[in-house]
């Protein structure tokens, strides 16, 4: 009886799944076009899954092995099941392999079930709670129906009641694993996730046989020349189709939620919920069925949307509230942590673009900062002619006078900030001690456009970027060095699309190179314990974790690492215009970060970003001092041991009046 | 739009907007006070707001004017005027052609003559009442507007004025909304030709950057924090002022002339 029933069941499930898959694909196709290499993408998919995805999943060893057993077992069992039971190719070794595959899957599903016993709060409940049982139902029933096929049990073992019961369990398993995959059940993540890997919008972030993938973190430019092109994302269907596909790939593991600084601070943002809301919008409906942690302070079930309806309402509620989008610090912790390679920050900035460019609704100080950027080229509204006042006594060489230099020192808007001026002075001192041939743009420099872009004002960003690129094209230099990771990121990763290709170094990278070349001499560190805070725009955006630590090592400092450091570093709260839009929460993000610092017992936290300095120094009753790496190096500088170095310096034609600490 | 629109006649408001000048960089922008005037107009219920500018169509002027369109307008009426023309007759003509019930302007332009006289001269020409320094338009009923005028130190005065009228806004009026790029780019600058009256006096004028005016020092002889606070909060009193009521115009003019001479404004 099973012989006739099984092929019917299997092919019925596959047929229904195919219909569901087409319907799902039509949901994605509501999005805007985005050309991708289809064949190449599909061919690259297995590698992206096995290497890049498991690189992320592998950070949790137990879960990684669980997933390998369950998913690997399932894929093998499903294929073999079609061959063995669907097409009746039971002969020989296939049946035995199928037994092994389903057994492996069962072991994996036991571990899934174990984690679901007391699930951490970041995991979604609801339909996800039945998934381990469904996995077991599928693996056990496939195992059981294969036993007679390989001859371990007689063909007519048991009664027809047993066979019917087995079929019922198999129907449950097939329903979840095959039918549910295409019709929006928890297993949807496998179907959408695989295609998302194949058609990802940032293919360059994946490794190839040639080597590692490179960080692909620059935002994509809006085409402002085409007046009919939408300015950002108003409706779910304004996303590109592969962005929609990406949202659908979400497995609701909540790793993003666990890492999100805004969520931890009680601000109304949860990256997981945001992605789920996009899925709700794409399919149409209410968020009432969502079974994970809500946006802090916002109950589930009050929002709804449609594919062609607004995401953020001008008044009242739609799919998402504006303050949710403005809570994001663009720190990319969620993107870094996401095993499905979803690009949360791109989506958030896309939606912010619409709010700023079409609604004109940037909250709090946003409008003022953008107006300042338009009128004065800096966010503070300061006189552009006063940009170099901090360096009145330093006689900095100007590019306008020199025309060329080895290093162009990009000062950033920190030039107007008295705290950051100390960092800049230190950096100048270090560069002079190492005899670096550098020059600055002086008053010709403008804001890089970072804040404007993160606040969604692509028009102001592009205007600033174009003018900066025009200025930079007048001069010859080998590289740009800056102490601002935000400028570093924008100049290095985002100006390329606007026509400016530069080699950009963060000052910590450059100082590390100077140390390596033996051009800096320092006295040994005598202070207390030191920890290091990775700026998001240096670390996660640009993959630079080593150079700042190397500099600290060269100073003789042993870094006491925080629990969240490196790629998991917690944001200071200063990115993405978050201090400007200033969405209230229950805690402040920098306070939490200074607690992290306090837990290491360090007396000093080394930073490499003006934003981080400002945010962390704003913490009341902090247990540690905040110093930029440049300040630490400048404070430790000493004369070169041999006389020859001194003679060398005499010959250089820079001003002889050097600041002495 | 609802069907009852036909029964309720919307209030026609025209906001006169100018090309502003950023105080630090001198770049063309939407003028702060004119933007407040637009915001004030937007806050009036059941109103149909139109923007009007008399001036040129140069690139930087256009970007500044588009700043007003970015506050949510489809079009702006541009009464074309060459450089150095007196815009007053052209504006009066345009307003007389399709008279609105309420005209709102800023107190004074941020560049050019910037005398702040335009609303008064315009009111004189049109024969309309003028009310300066508004903080709010509270209501409009049966052709009479209830206005809230801002006075120094947070005082307010409620006025009723028969429409049509010209009003100017005060810094106490609501801050202008953000100008959005999308509507600013899409909006239409509807150019209409205007009669040109060359301002001959203006052509002979020489302009130079304004010097900072000397400020009367407030000498605070305070012993305690309370005194210092009182001194800081007190209004700056010139002392020796006088209130003239029911005097002949000549007497009034003489008093003003005398004061100007004392203050060194006239020599």
UniProtKB/TrEMBL annotation, chain A:
PROSITE patterns noted in UniProt: 4FE4S_FER_1 (PS00198), 4FE4S_FER_2 (PS51379)
Ranges for domain 4Fe-4S ferredoxin-type: 241-271, 316-347
InterPro entries (UniProt xref): 4Fe4S_Fe-S-bd, 4Fe4S_Fe_S_CS, Csal_0991-like_N, Cys_rich_dom, HdrC_iron-sulfur_subunit, Helical_ferredxn
Keywords: 4Fe-4S, Iron, Iron-sulfur, Membrane, Metal-binding, Oxidoreductase, Transmembrane, Transmembrane helix
GO cellular component: plasma membrane
Alphabetized Pfam families for the sequence: CCG, DUF3483, Fer4_8
Membrane-spanning parts: 6-22, 68-87, 93-113, 134-153, 159-179
One MF term in the entry's GO annotations: metal ion binding
UniProt protein name: Fe-S oxidoreductase
From TrEMBL, chain B:
SMART domains linked to this entry: ETF
Keywords: Electron transport, Transport
Signal peptide: none
Domain of life: Bacteria
SUPFAM superfamilies registered for this protein in UniProt: Adenine nucleotide alpha hydrolases-like
One Pfam family recorded for the sequence: ETF
Occurrences of domain Electron transfer flavoprotein alpha/beta-subunit N-terminal (ranges): 19-200
MF-aspect GO terms: electron transfer activity
Entry-linked Gene3D superfamilies: HUPs
Similarity-based family: Belongs to the ETF beta-subunit/FixA family.
Name of this protein: Electron transfer flavoprotein beta subunit
Organism: Halomonas organivorans
